[in-house]
TrEMBL record:
Protein name, UniProt field: ChrR-like anti-ECFsigma factor
Positions of the UniProt region annotated as Disordered: 71-93
Pfam families: Cupin_7
InterPro entries cross-referenced by the UniProt entry: Anti-sigma_ChrR, Anti_sigma_zinc_sf, ChrR-like_cupin_dom, RmlC-like_jellyroll, RmlC_Cupin_sf
SUPFAM superfamilies hit by this protein: RmlC-like cupins (SSF51182)
Domain ChrR-like cupin: 100-193
Native species: Halospina denitrificans
Amino acid sequence: MSVHHPDEMLLTEYSAGTLTEPMALCIRMHLERCAHCRSQLDMLNSLGAIMLDHSHHASKVSDDLFDSILTRLDDPEQPPDNEQQATETDNRSPLEKMLGTDLQSLPWKRQLADVSVCDLSDYFPGDERVTLQKLCAGGRAPSHTHGGKEATLVLTGAFADGNGVFSKGDFVILDEHHDHQPVALHGEDCITLSVLDAPVRLTGRLTRLLNPFIR
């Protein structure tokens, strides 16, 4: 079960269909593993439908109707039969379906001793950089901060930094106010999907010399 979640604003934008494609993909993949956020999204979708209907008919929505929507937050979501059947026959993630291959078969490039990357930016429109990052089990990424916002979704394994432990399905957004050094937990490589609107900036005493050569 996920511990780190997108905030309500991001879920609202996802419900409204206003997120960029790579950000929407991150949220969608988080939702697949997070019943809590699926319940929140279900409520947002229901409220959005009510507001749309209200704007068309200019009628007052009863308190009982809102109460019934809020009550649904306490009920576990059951996927439709066709969705459950699809899951049983195809266990690939939405990302793997888009790429047409599994994560391990991608053309990974070694960036630093413990870090390999695969740039997926060409799969998406817009200026955001979309990358997969693989941190070998027990390995350390270089200390860095961010020139803008970086959204990260954990796909396999787990990593820890000063903000906590992030496991499969966890989602986090970091910005220029965060300086951290992710460390992969032992036992499994940690693969993350990241969406960046500006390059990272290495902050280590030696690695900062590499900043002119990274995007």
